Amino acid sequence: SVTGSISRKVIITCAVTGAIHTPSMSPHLPVTADEIVADALGAAEAGAAILHLHARDPQTGRPDQRPEAFASFLPRIKQATAAAINITTGGSPFMKVEERVLPAAMFKPEVASLNVGSINFGLYQLLDKYKEFKHDWERDYLEATRDLVFRNSFKDIEYILKTCSDNGTRFEFECYDIGHLYNLAHVADRGLVEPPFFVQSVFGILGGIGTHPEDVMHMKRTADRLFGTDYRWSTLGAGASQLRIAAQSAALGGNVRVGLEDSLWAGKGRLATSSADQVRMVRKIIEGLGLEVASPDEARSILSLKG
Ligand SMILES: C[C@H](N)CC(=O)CC(=O)O
Ligand SMILES: [Zn+2]
């Protein structure tokens, strides 16, 4: 296990665009390749050690999981920053696993996300807030989540693990609820994944666990019991809970994830103008707690990435 001071460095992961928010929700949501490059590099500059990336259609902003969509920005990001690249295998929750895994399988990143269980994935409630949309697909996309199950069966999980594991890619295990921690323990017991497990606890997605401090404690206590020192804990809070969840995680010895994929806000009622805005805010919290932000290489060592 990691000893000495390095373990108290806090890893900031930044998720710059995702497949949850739609362009009409914020003028700052990166959509084009240029916007994704600028936002990712700004986040790295501000202190993010890992960049979690999705792709979008540059015209409509619709989630796009084709490898060529990622090719339009990945090389420029890789050559301009030491931050570790984390490619989504979640894509959009409407996509099939065969489509979702393609970019990670092709680009063999240091990290790829892996969603360790199926959940209802509600976004339709956002239609109570957002009424005007630039593109027709946005309203339909949100409304369709009323009947959406984000499918991640054990066969799907094994398929992604097998497809990517020969590439030296390690995983950001997205756990939206307590049962997902047990799913991860199960695939670990079957020898499909090697520790240390990078557990990304997801709070506040409608269909998963809530954002109450007790929910955070419950996730941590359960992960401590199931994985002991064989895991590195990180958290993300959806929407307005983002920085509160990050503060609790950092105080508990955890790592944090921010970025416009997970929240469009930089404080109450203020739209973040970039993911870097949120990285700077969470960095202030981390340093305010007397902790330090991990550099990309320190993150690689803490997570045993291939570098
Ligand atoms: C809640 C987040 N959207 C989790 C996520 O980032 C999933 C993925 O890309 O695989
Ligand atoms: Zn994602």
Plain-language structure description:
The protein has 307 residues and is an alpha/beta fold. It has helices spanning 33-46, 67-71, 74-80, 97-100, 102-107, 136-144, 154-165, 178-189, 213-227, 242-251, 275-288, 296-303, and strands spanning 9-10, 12-15, 50-53, 84-87, 111-115, 119-120, 149-150, 170-175, 197-203, 231-237, 255-258, 292-293. The longest helix is centred in the C-terminal third of the chain and has 15 residues, at 213-227. The radius of gyration is 18 Å and the shape is globular. The model has no long low-confidence stretch (mean pLDDT 96). Bound molecules: (5S)-5-amino-3-OXO-hexanoic acid (KMH) and zinc ion. Zinc ion (ZN) is lined by residues 15, 18, 52, 54, 88, 90, 113, 261. (5S)-5-amino-3-OXO-hexanoic acid is lined by residues 15, 18, 20, 88-90, 113, 115, 174, 202, 205, 261.
